[in-house]
Amino acid sequence: MSTQQIPPRAYADSVQHENELNGLFRQSWLFAGLKLELQGNSHQGVRLGNTEIVLQCDEAGKPRAFLNVCSHRHARLCEPGKHRGFVRCPYHSWVYDKCGVPLSVPQKQAFPQVVAQPENFRLQEFACEAAGEFIFVRLAQDGPSLRDYLGSQYDFLEHASVGLDAVQDEFREEVGANWKVVIENALEGYHVPSVHSGTFMEVDGMSREKEAPRFFFDDARHSHLEHDANADWVARFKRMESKIGSWPWRFEHYTHHHIFPNLTVTSFMGYSFHVQRFDPTSAESTTVHSRTVGVKFEGATEAGKKMMEHIYADGHAFTKKVFAEDGAICAKVQAGVRQATKLAVLGEGIEDRVRHFQQAYVAAQPIEGQE
Ligand code: FES
Ligand SMILES: [Fe+2]
Questions:
Q1: Which ligand has its closest atom nearest to the C-alpha of 266?
Q2: How many degrees, rounded to 5, is the angle at CA 34 between CA 28 and CA 270?
Q3: Would you indicate the residue range of the signal peptide (predicted)?
Q4: Is the CATH number 3.90.380.10 carried by domain 165-364?
Q5: What is the distance in A from the centroid of ligand 1 to the CA of 71?
């Protein structure tokens, strides 16, 4: 009988990991980066699943994704991270334009076929679409459109993108656990009193009266929650409003979205958005790329700007601390899951988002040795 839960071996097995990279990480739309990071003449090296890509915007501003391999003799074009200017191969300096077509070739008389029809030598390209600022890539040739894939999350990402300004804080860190362990940890608040007793529990802002956040399962793959902000905190922002100004999308709760498989977007009241990308680096390790993105404030005074800087700075320190606590507990889960033989026990209500994720995973990826 098949189960809707992920068996423990699927979190530690290298064959399962390979199958995922060639399976769900090819079929799904993967979050790759933000349009606002690709402004001007620039490009970015990103690894998605087992594929290295180069991300850039074409002249019309549309994001495009290319295999990070030179058409000439297959050198890797760029290292992971951001780069200025056109894509230029480090080996013989072929330069590619924004559509991945060779733009200049040293000693071009030796390559008459490239000079005659450069578009025949364009870089291999992948499906690439954006929802607002959020760029997604699908490695498989065929599949649903991004809009169909994202379902109700498409509107959320578009709405969140209005007024997104600049990346204020960014880090990449390795967690010693399978990516599914890391995602599942992000999908439940049950561990918070135990793991984050010294951090989260002391933070202002979350309503204590309404213990239960609201869960939303509109889409088969994705989920989100909303947790009301407490009344004092909302009132505090109201009092500061004349100084800090207004921001484009204001809500009075904390929101946490998981977009299957590799993206979470969270925000408290909409004055900044925390964007995390989860990259499975091996069966038992995950690289997390975390960004805090600020929004545009209208009509802020100098004093108001200072206040927001403090709020942001506190937020950064808090994020790092929480991240370290989560990373440490995920490594312990990994140590256990390696030896576990029975299915996990999932709580009703509090762990519904974990269950939803496991069902989405089981639907997307066959499990080794299971019917
Ligand atoms: S391999 Fe890229 S220019 Fe030669
Ligand atoms: Fe946590």
A1: 2
A2: 105
A3: none
A4: yes
A5: 7
